Amino acid sequence: MVEQVEGFYDKIVGDTGRLRNLLSKIPGLSGYMERGRRREADQLLRDTITGRLEQVRLDYSNVFQTVGRDIFLAMDYSERLGRADNLLMGLIGKIKDAPVGYAGFFSAIKVDAEDLARLYAFDEQMLNHTDQIAAEVATLTKAVDGGTDIAEPLTALTNALLTANEAFNSRQEVLNGIK
Phi first, then psi: what are they for 97, rounded to 5°? Predict the structure, then answer.
């Protein structure tokens, strides 16, 4: 998975045409262009992550519907299932709406190249969290379809979602220069 992630940035950096080569020879402009390419890579990666999480949410909605058909399961687990769904929706929204690290001339928050690299690393880490969440949804689906107890898989999913949300929240700390 990490190999694919590293390819995003390399793909964007490797896309140098004649104009880009000419512009890179202007003093000070190459650093600006580098930051722009990192921002593009960051946006591409976050779009990929949100796309995967939206697919996971579709899979999770099938679980939710299956549990809803059994009145006893629904009474026991609807609140916990709803909480996990809210965590998943919130995570998708945070990732989708997160700033790409841009800092305009008059912005209060300035993001340098080192911070952009750290933001990119956070976003790479989110791919691992996405895989974990998908695995937990698959385990929960298997338990629901097999008629086995869903308490443990649901707890594991909720914990994975809480961990992913916490990890993504630390991204804003990098933007604010706290971390």
Answer: -95, 0
